[in-house]
Amino acid sequence: MAKPHDGKPVRTPRQSKPSIDFTCDVCANPARASFLAALEAGATIDEIAGGSGLAPGVLQRHFTECIPQIPDHGGDVSAASDAELAALIVHSEELYCASVLSNNLSAASSSLTVRLRALAERERRTELRDERKAMIEGASPLDRSTWGEALHKFMAAYIDGCLSRVREESIE
To answer: How many structural domains does the chain have?
Structure first.
């Protein structure tokens, strides 16, 4: 993150909003990853507060404002998977910060590895979506001359697959 002369962090256009709010007592706590793990395991906020010494209101604010929630995608598997991947990216950053705060460099290194792999997967998915979109962009289902080579290959493989299944069913 860039720092101007006054030393305050400044986001550049390529950087996303930092997910760590060090004015939050939970974000600044080295055990914050364990608080989230306890919540995800079914512990109540009061139980986590009792074990951590933090006020329930502080934990509630942290879990509602600092930790993004995965929305229900109504059966859209692709959107749900993308949301889970985004949550993995956030959780890996959470784990990294907690590991650094507790001086556990091995865990910090592992969480960075997970984060980099998740970011690479997000980029791969974006590229695949762009390729698929480009494949059908401008193509008319009624005019094969508007199809690109990739769409021709896809359609040929799709039709061959359909015909082979029809042949198999007619033999049985």
So the answer is: 1
